[in-house]
Design goal:
The protein is mostly helical and 259 residues long. Among the domains are: 53 residues, no CATH class; 114 residues. The protein contains 8 helices and no strands.
Length: 259
């Protein structure tokens, strides 16, 4: 269920809820309204009593309906994410094919069937645009077919002497198609910017080695407790201690090492 479908369904549900609340409000105060025929007041009271008695059932049904909507949305998003992972893997396979100095038929066929599978598995996520009971419609993401057509120009059975320039052109066409696809395909996932992005090049860790006092005390306590117990394999303990000491010496800054 796409985001548009979810919003459309929720909007209808909100309008229905508003209408029900207005009906209940009118039924509640029908007795206080002057000039209404007695049969209207009686009908309003019956409606109010019925809605009050059925309120728990109505609320339960509404919650179940909302749960069903969001469950469908969750499954759709999962399918969409898996399809995107498949597209990324396919793009990598196609680019790898373009990088081969000697493209064998088996390598080409593996890449070709990979992009063909990706095109077909899109059917479990989206139907064709403009598809009807009599019309096939248009494939929703044409750049995948552009990637397929570009790859087909490297078919060793047709073009056994593909040049490096031809492979470079195919590679650029695949990347251009992939970038165009990425701009629109990921819109459905409602992605947000990270709260703590790292936007600079050449970044490094700002924390320094060490731990707070509580962790140090716990470490010393555990070490003393271990030392009080007899070692089952002293050679293993000595071996691990030597490795840890050597590693700590190598990680120590040069200025802190003894001369």
């Amino acid at each position: 269920m796409t985001r548009v479908s979810v919003n459309r369904t929720l909007k209808r549900l909100y309008w229905l809820l508003t209408a029900v609340l207005l009906l209940l409000l009118a039924s509640k105060f029908a007795d206080d309204a002057s000039g209404l025929p007695p049969f209207v007041v009686s009908a309003a009271n019956k409606v109010y009593d019925f809605m009050r008695d059925m309120s728990l059932l109505i609320a339960t049904g509404g919650v179940a309906y909302l749960s069903n909507i969001f469950q469908k949305r969750s499954k759709f998003v999962e399918s969409l994410e898996e399809e995107w992972r498949n597209i990324v893997r396919t793009k990598s396979a196609l680019l790898s094919t373009c990088e081969k100095p000697y493209l064998a038929t088996d390598d080409y066929l593996a890449a070709f069937y990979r992009i063909s599978e990706t095109i077909d598995t899109m059917r479990i996520v989206y139907k064709n645009s403009g598809e009807t009971s009599t019309l096939v419609g248009l494939y929703p993401y044409a750049p995948l077919h552009d990637m397929r057509r570009a790859l087909q120009t490297l078919d060793p059975r047709i073009n056994p002497e593909a040049t490096a320039d031809q492979k470079t052109l195919v590679r650029e066409a695949i990347l251009q198609s992939f970038f165009a696809l990425r701009e629109t395909f990921l819109e459905e996932l409602d992605l947000e910017e990270p709260q703590s992005p790292l936007l600079i090049s050449g970044a490094r860790r700002l924390k320094v080695p060490g731990a707070d006092m509580a962790a140090r005390i716990m470490q010393d306590h555990q070490r003393r407790r271990l030392e009080r117990e007899p070692a089952q394999k002293p050679e293993v303990d000595a071996f691990l201690t030597a490795l840890r000491t050597r590693e700590e010496e190598n990680e120590r800054p040069q200025a802190e090492k003894p001369l």
